[in-house]
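Open question from group meeting: does this chain pack into something compact, or does most of it stay loose? Before anyone orders reagents, we agreed to write out a predicted structure and look at it together. Recording both the input and the output here so the notebook holds the full record.
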Amino acid sequence: MNRREFLRATVAGGITLASALPVSAATERPAKQPNIVLIMADDLGFETIGCYGAKDYKTPHIDALAAKGVRFNHCYSQPLCTPSRVQIMTGRYNHRNYEGFGYLNPKEVTFGNVLKKAGYQTCIAGKWQLCGDASTVTAFGFDEHCLWNMHSYRGGTPNAKEPKEWFSRYDAPTLYRNGKWTKHPKGVYGPQVCTDFITSFIEQKKDQPFFVYYPMIITHAPFVPTPDSVDKHCKGKKRNFVDMVEYMDLLVGQIVQQLKEQGVLDNTLIFFTGDNGTHNAISSKTVKGSIRGGKMKMTNAGTRVPLVATWPGKSPAGKVFEDLVDFSDFLPTICDVAGVQVPTDRIIDGRSFLPQILGRKGTPREWVFCHYWGPGREKKQTREFVRNQRWKLYDNGKMYDIKNDVLEQSPLQETAPEVVAARKRLQAALDTIKKRQ
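Structure tokens returned:
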């Protein structure tokens, strides 16, 4: 199915998913292990998605996933791409295993490793940015790959002999496909190539349990026209970013449509999230006002990302959770879905939010933690915070009431009982996470 056929085949409100069964029916695992698809957009804050109140963007396919599944209002990533990738893949906070930008230590265990060992067919497509070559990707648990940015950064292992055109990710991209470089001609769009790779993988592996991890290339700068842009020569950052968000949503829809056509949608859990906040060159209108992107900042705009999870027939339709989730939680949740144990030879910081996906209360965390190397590259600039839905405490003692001070402009000096109690709880959490080595 090409892009135009796909558009004709979908309805205006997004792809229609199977109707959700009562939650009580979700307690039984299918005879076949469920498929898992994790989609993570690049540089995409929560304010860009329709179901989160976006006014500048149309995201019908992601909105449809939320309408048929669950949505989390408090999911937190790291403020930058590589730190988020390291954390989401390993279930471990950055102070344990983040060693430098563009690098993941080969000694780490990823969700790809865990699922591959459990018998899953595994695939990764999109943005790698973790060093190495085909053997590295395989060692981290992925059978097949179609990747951009194998670049070797400080502290990394030798790269995959990346060509000079490695930075070409959109028009005429250079992609690393199962160990071989391909320089695509002009008119070929990188995000579409990666999506087509995934849909082909789904078709080939539909009779086996599979895991797809899609750290998307899009919507990262440069902000350039998409194949669907009316003005193919537009240089307006915001105009092109709008088109990129909407094309990203289209790609999500294509994957869901392929799952449906291959008859595996009802046995597939789909996650959608973003790796960090939107680029600060982009300001977006929402139902609650304008939000400027906060990538590389530790504020809400830099760390709060969308999280939608849909498992047709198992997740309750349209449920919205205020529970806290951070990127360390994905690995244990994925293990829970597959019915396998999390790694026991190392500390795993996350906890499963599968119960919430199934519409249950679960055991939500009381706080989330962030350890960040300043702009992501200098260890000497490390900052940390621990927070809940309202209160946020930094390692330097500054505390904020995020509910009433989202831009963190007024550190709290109050001695009101609720402020004192919140500070005490968060300081205890910060002390606990640092002691748990």
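Observations to bring back to the group:
Residues 1-30 have pLDDT under 50 and may be disordered.
The chain is about 25% helix and 20% strand.
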